[in-house]
Amino acid sequence: MSYTGSCLCGDVTFKLNGEPKRTITCYCTDCRKGSGALGQFISVYDTTNVEIKDPNSKVGEYVVQKTQSGTPKKKQFCTGCGCTIRTLPGKYKGEVSMMRQALLDDDFKNHVPQASIFNDEKERFTSGIKSEFY
């Protein structure tokens, strides 16, 4: 099985080959600030299973130096629309891609998070919000 997705403007597209290692919701400060939301919906893939297509050279990169793991991580995003495409955690030396599942073209509802991380940073009011995904 493979899945396709894109950034908001469509200049950067991607294909995910196979199923993710796991799908999570992350509530860390970096994910909240990077998304402008309460957290991010992420699927973890081996980087070898991710194909990024960037015909107009729009993929930019920002290195987050101060991380909770102590190892810098790279955030790749579209310089046209600003969408984060993926994060490459430094502790995995580029071998793991944390893909933003909200950018999928289809099958979004089939990727239900199996876990959430950094729950201590999750806003308390979110626990009372009902969702068909959880």
From TrEMBL:
InterPro entries, per database record: CENP-V/GFA, Mss4-like_sf
Keyword Glycosyltransferase: no
Pfam families in the cross-refs: GFA (PF04828)
Gene Ontology molecular function: any one: carbon-sulfur lyase activity
Protein keywords: Lyase, Metal-binding, Zinc
Domain annotation CENP-V/GFA: ranges: 3-119
The family this protein is said to belong to: Belongs to the Gfa family.
Protein name according to UniProt: CENP-V/GFA domain-containing protein
